[in-house]
Design brief:
InterPro entries: ABC_transp_perm/SBD, MetI-like, MetI-like_sf. It is found in: Cell membrane; Membrane. This is ABC transporter permease subunit. This protein is an all-alpha fold. It has one domain: MetI-like (MetI-like fold, Orthogonal Bundle). Helices cover about 85% and strands about 0% of the residues. It has 10 helices and no strands. Helix 6 packs antiparallel against helix 7. It is elongated.
């Protein structure tokens, strides 16, 4: 890359901040749509995958199922999923939401399973010996110890969904992807500006779930993990 190209690149990068100032309302509106889509996808993924993963981990069964779902989820590119659901559900919010849920389920399911399944069996046996029911063992012993790993899966899913939601514009789903995928209308500075906002949203989501993990996990568990 020559000096002229580097100068143009730096000029475009700094111009993106001018774009942010000049089009703050546009970016804010697209950000709300982006967050609405991403939050709905993560929430649905949690409702679907979290109880299933925790239950399978508690029973110590389903390792092949969770690993298979995780591998399939990683193998399917987000754009391909959106294209598939485009044919099934048409253009719009529901299409993109369904694709994002499919992408968010594998990390949540896998980490929910592993977080409970890897709890020290001696602790579980001791709890049973004390007369605790299976529900009490799950909620009082396994889940508190599982929270750090469990939240890792949620954080991965949230960052993945926020980043992939930029492709929503392909199927009319809105969000910041409307700017990122429309360089003709907004210019390269607009594309960079929207991409920076997506990066900030992903980092903010990761920090939020990290803070929730620290808030909900017993201090002794965090200290034992060096968190």
């Amino acid at each position: 890359m020559g000096p002229d190209a580097e100068d143009r690149l730096m000029h475009t990068f700094f111009a993106s901040f001018t774009f942010m100032a000049d089009h703050f309302g546009l970016l804010a509106d697209r950000t709300l749509g982006h967050l609405e889509l991403s939050a709905a996808a993560v929430a649905l993924a949690l409702v679907i995958a979290l109880p299933l993963g925790v239950w399978l981990g508690h029973r110590g069964k389903g390792f092949f199922l969770t690993v298979s779902i995780s591998n399939i989820g990683r193998a399917l590119p987000s754009l391909a999923l959106i294209a598939i659901f485009l044919g099934l559900l048409g253009i719009g919010f529901v299409n993109v939401l369904t694709a994002l849920v499919v992408m968010a389920v594998p990390p949540v399911l896998t980490h929910a399973y592993l977080s409970v399944e890897q709890v020290d069996p001696d602790l579980v046996r001791a709890a049973r010996g004390m007369g605790l029911t299976e529900w009490q063992i799950l909620t009082r012993v396994e889940l508190p110890l599982a929270l750090p790993v469990l939240f890792t899966g949620i954080r991965i899913a949230a960052v993945y969904v926020i980043s992939s939601a930029t492709l929503a514009a392909v199927a009319g789903g809105g969000g910041l992807g409307d700017i990122i995928l429309n360089q003709v209308s907004y210019g390269l500075s607009g594309v960079i500006a929207a991409a920076l906002w997506v990066a900030v949203l992903a980092l903010a989501a990761d920090a939020l779930f990290g803070a929730l993990r620290n808030r909900l996990t017993p201090r002794g568990v965090l200290a034992g993990r060096g968190a």
